[in-house]
Structures are given as C-alpha cells and as structure tokens.
Automatic annotation (TrEMBL):
Pfam families from the UniProt entry: Pkinase
Catalytic activity: L-seryl-[protein] + ATP = O-phospho-L-seryl-[protein] + ADP + H(+); L-threonyl-[protein] + ATP = O-phospho-L-threonyl-[protein] + ADP + H(+)
Identification of the protein by name: non-specific serine/threonine protein kinase
Gene source species: Coemansia reversa (strain ATCC 12441 / NRRL 1564)
GO MF: ATP binding; protein serine/threonine kinase activity
PROSITE patterns hit by this protein: PROTEIN_KINASE_ATP, PROTEIN_KINASE_DOM
SMART domains named in the record: S_TKc
E.C. number: 2.7.11.1
Amino acid sequence: MVKPIDIKQAGLFSESSRVLFERYILLQMIGEGQYGKVYKAMHRRTGVIVAMKMISKLSRKKVEIETYREEMRLLQQLDHPHVIQLVEYFETATDIFIVLEYCKCDLSVYLKRKGGFLKMEEVRDIALQLLSGLRYLHRLGVVHHDIKLPNALIGADGKIKWCDLGLATQMTQDGKPIFVHALKGTPLYMAPEILSKSRYTYKADLWSLGVVLYELYVGKTPFRTSSIAELKHNIMMENIIWPKDIPAQLKLFLEGLLQRDPSRRIHWSQLRCHPFLLSTDTEDSLKGASSLRSSTSTLH
C-alpha cells in the first residue's frame, strides 16, 4: 500500500494546504516540470483516483495564469471518451489545482515499453481513437495545436485520450483559416503552414497526427535535426523517407495526412472511409500473403 504524502512536502501555503487536505489524499508524485507538479491522488469522500496538477501563482505572469483558466474553461465544455476529462478545478490565493481523470502513461512512454515501434494493426487501433477525439474537437471548432505523443494519454480504461489543450485555438465561426501570429506547438510535429506563419485550419492538426502515427510505426519522427532552421527547411522541402517494408495502405494513409499543401491534405470525409482504417488486415497476414504470392510466382 502506498503511503500518503504529507501535504507539507508539496510546498503549499496554509490556505492551499487546508483546501487540498479537505478534499484529497496525495499518494505519489508522478510528474514535475516548469508548469508545476502532478500527483496521483484519491478523493477523500468517493475514493476515486485522480491526477492532480498543482501550479504556483507566485512566479507566474498574469497572462500565464489566464492561459490555464482558458484551458479549464474549454475542458469544462468537453465530454468525449478520447479527450481527457476534467474532474474539477479550483484556486487559492497562491495556487491553481487542476484535477483530471487518472491515466496510466502517455504514448511516448508506451512506445518505449513496446520496444520503440508498433505493428500496423496497433497503429490503426490508436489512429482510430485519436481521430475520434480529434474529430470531436474539430466539430466544436477547436484546433488542438500541440498534437504529439506526450499529449496522448492511455487512460485507466485503456482508451487513448488527448490532453494538454493549453495551446488550443478556437476557429472562426465561418470556418475561415486563422492567421498565425506566433508559433504555437512543438516544432517536430508542426505543419508547414504553421512554420511558414501562413493561414491555417484544422488540417494543421491532421499533419501533426500524421507525424505521430509515422513515429509510432517507424520509431522516430519523419524529420529530425538539432537545428530549428534546418528542421523547418526539412519539413518544408525534403522528402519523407519511408521504410521499405511499410504496408501499402498505411503508407497511403500517412501520405494523405503528410501533404505539405493543406488543400491536398486528406480531409474528414475521406478519412472516415479510408481503406487503412476500415481494413482488418494484420501486418503478419500481409507479410504472409506477400510470401505466398512470391512463392506462387516462382512456381509458374
């Protein structure tokens, strides 16, 4: 049994300590970064296990605090099995507490545990879940803006869920492209139109999803370099290197997502009926069929 953490160890001021102690028992710290600390916690009354993010206001600019509040206002409106669920959100004079459903790990951690890459059928299963959550957001006019492996969590129910909507942007009601005023997101996953500071739509998220799925299958992102300038050049200009043995349907699907020209990039009506997503083939079965065709052609 995990021994509860003394609230004083969390470095909270008296008011925050009292509010937190009344509601939750801290079980263990599961994450820490510039944003603050994340704890696995249990609700005192219901016994529900949650993830609690604690953010100090003391060293934050007002605009940073307001960004967290905007994200919470957005999460309060969302209800989908493939988008992280906000349990509750509260503030004291010194701290912000964001309570989310508890998840096992993110996809980057899962990928490492699986040896660095996944088989086609698992990539397909994950793709279907991620697309379901993304479609929900896009229907509400929300562009996620930071699609990447660490922002996709595996829930306690086993479902993949998008999280971290701090950079999310609300599309215009008429659906017209938004102009990029400042780069938002993670460069390795950014769509060309974002990097070039052009106008963009929800299709920027679809490019980023293509990068995520490529990474899940290949084990690395399509474009890698230590220089931001070189990375931008590669994303804008260089050809993607495809593994020789990548299944044809998966490659066709990823090519649709990774079109540099947004007008040529696959859209939702095409995604719903794409052969890769509808297929029940496994990678082993395709390799078996390929071997059979090869041996048959040798006999003739």
